[in-house]
Specification:
This protein has about 140 residues and is α+β, with helices and mostly antiparallel strands. It is about 35% helix and about 30% strand. The protein has 2 helices and 8 strands; from the N terminus they run αββββββββα. A hairpin with a 4-residue loop joins β1 (about 40-45) and β2 (about 50). The model has no long low-confidence stretch (mean pLDDT about 85).
Length: about 140
């Protein structure tokens, strides 16, 4: 009887892990369908992001389809900032902190809004920051 009771928490953890894995798999499958329309895209637990032409779309991944989607054009963006924790970096910086807790690319829109796109990986965020900065510079100088 005691052995059975000792295995009960382990069984509960197993079911929770199985459900979590299934949930994340559903989010990824939903993201794959959503991302087909974009030239460049990314997925992580915080946000999905896609770029097609001069449009940038991002939102929160869910099992059915991304929610809270926002879309801007490069003409709507005044400036792009790359934030790691509380510091801002630019494309000239060669190294970024490894133990970052909060990584984001912030878009400063011409309307004054400042949406932030969260990332879990510094290198992926830096790549997107450089790409978006280059595209913004190209759209400013046709």
């Amino acid at each position: 009887m005691e052995r059975g009771l000792l295995w009960l928490p382990l069984l509960a953890v197993f079911f929770w892990l199985a459900w979590s894995g299934w949930n994340e798999y559903q989010k990824i499958e939903s993201y794959k369908r959503w991302a087909e329309q974009f030239e460049r895209h990314k997925y992580d637990i915080y946000a999905v992001l896609g770029q097609k032409g001069d449009r940038l779309t991002w939102g929160k991944p869910t099992r059915k389809e991304p929610s809270h989607l926002q879309t801007v054009t490069f003409q709507d963006i005044a400036r792009i900032r790359f934030r790691i924790d509380s510091k801002f970096f630019d494309e000239k910086d060669a190294e970024f902190p490894i133990n970052a807790k909060q990584i984001s690319v912030e878009l400063l829109l011409k309307t004054g809004e400042m949406p932030s796109i969260r990332f879990t990986d510094v290198d992926i965020a830096a790549g997107w920051y450089r790409f978006l900065s280059d595209r913004l510079a190209a759209s400013d100088n046709p």
